Amino acid sequence: MNTSAKQPSCLIVGAGPGIGQALALAFSREGCSIGLCARGAGKLLAIQEDVRETGGRAEVFSADAGDEAALQTMLAQVTRALGAPEVLIYNAAAGGVGKPLALTRDQLLKDFQVNVGSALMLAQAVAPAMKANGRGTILFTGGGFAYEPSANYSSLSLGKAALRNLTFSLAQELGASGIHVGTVTVYGFIQPGTHFDPSHIAEAFVSLHRQPKGHFQIEHVYR
Question: Given Cys at both, which of 27, 38, 180, 217 links 10, Cβ 3.0 to 4.6 Å?
Answer without folding.
Answer: 27
